[in-house]
Amino acid sequence: MKNVMADSGNGRLERGMRDENKVEKVNASESVYGFVAWLTCRTKPITLSSKDDCSEIARLVKDWCDTNELPGVREERYPGNIIHPVEHD
């Protein structure tokens, strides 16, 4: 069993236990959507823009990756392997 954040059924994520034998690992798309869902359920707001300090979101990304046992960034490939979408109004 692993201590993790889980959907409590009321739209909020709460710390809970995950049975590693019963839960599949997340894929990349599930992780991105899950991370954004987690951010929207937080009570503490976070501001994201090119003008704001990124240390808080970087810490949250690390927490998310560690909790979901995601592999680390491949420094020999990142960020060259990322394609940023065009920003929409």
How would you characterize this protein structure?
The chain is an alpha+beta fold. It has two helices and two strands. The chain has helices at 28-41, 55-67; strands spanning 2-7, 13-18. The chain has a two-stranded antiparallel ribbon. The chain is globular. The chain starts with a strand and ends in a 22-residue tail after the last helix. The mean pLDDT is 81.
Can you summarize this structure?
By secondary structure, the protein is α+β, with helices and mostly antiparallel strands.
Beginning-to-end CA distance, first to last residue? 44 Å
Average predicted confidence as pLDDT: 81
Biggest β-sheet: count, sense, barrel? 2 strands, antiparallel
How many helix segments? 2
Order of helices and strands: EEHH
Instruction: Please provide the count of β strands.
Output: 2
As residue ranges, the low-confidence spans are: none
Q: Strand content of the residues, in percent?
A: 5-15%
Give Rg in angstroms. 15 Å
Strand order, main sheet: write it out.
1-2
What structural category do the secondary elements indicate? Answer: alpha+beta
Gross morphology is: globular
Helix content bin: 25-40%
Oligomeric state of the chains in view: single chain
What layout of secondary structure does this protein have?
Elements: E1 2-7, E2 13-18, H1 28-41, H2 55-67
Antiparallel strand pairs: 1-2
Which terms summarize this structure?
89 residues, alpha+beta, globular, 13% strand
